[in-house]
Amino acid sequence: DDVVRAVGWTLALTVAAMLIGIVLAAATAVARQSENPVLRYVAYAYVFFFRGTPIYTQLVFWGLLPALYNKLSLG
């Protein structure tokens, strides 16, 4: 019973993460094509930062971020 519930949560979180990623990607793509220079620059900087940072560095940073704040908890 616990395994089935865990699989359900895993699938729900996977779908939620995919939807958030799709929305952010679409918004960034629209912003990159915008006529507004501020919006275009912010989107460019966002893409530049995440492309330029190694994935392992991002995993360590986002994975260890809760350790910086003792009040944050994942469970």
From TrEMBL:
SUPFAM superfamilies (alphabetical): MetI-like
Keywords: Amino-acid transport, Cell membrane, Membrane, Transmembrane, Transmembrane helix, Transport
NCBIfam families in the cross-refs: HEQRo_perm_3TM (TIGR01726)
Record's keyword annotation contains Aminoacyl-tRNA synthetase: no
One GO term of the biological process aspect: amino acid transport
Keyword Membrane: yes
Principal location listed in the UniProt entry: membrane
Transmembrane segments annotated in the record for this chain: 6-31, 43-65
GO terms of molecular function: transmembrane transporter activity
PANTHER family, sorted: L-CYSTINE TRANSPORT SYSTEM PERMEASE PROTEIN TCYL, MEMBRANE COMPONENT OF AMINO ACID ABC TRANSPORTER
Gene3D superfamilies named in the record: MetI-like (1.10.3720.10)
Gene Ontology CC terms: ATP-binding cassette (ABC) transporter complex
Compartment(s): Cell membrane
Entry protein name: Amino acid ABC superfamily ATP binding cassette transporter permease protein
Membrane topology label: Multi-pass membrane protein
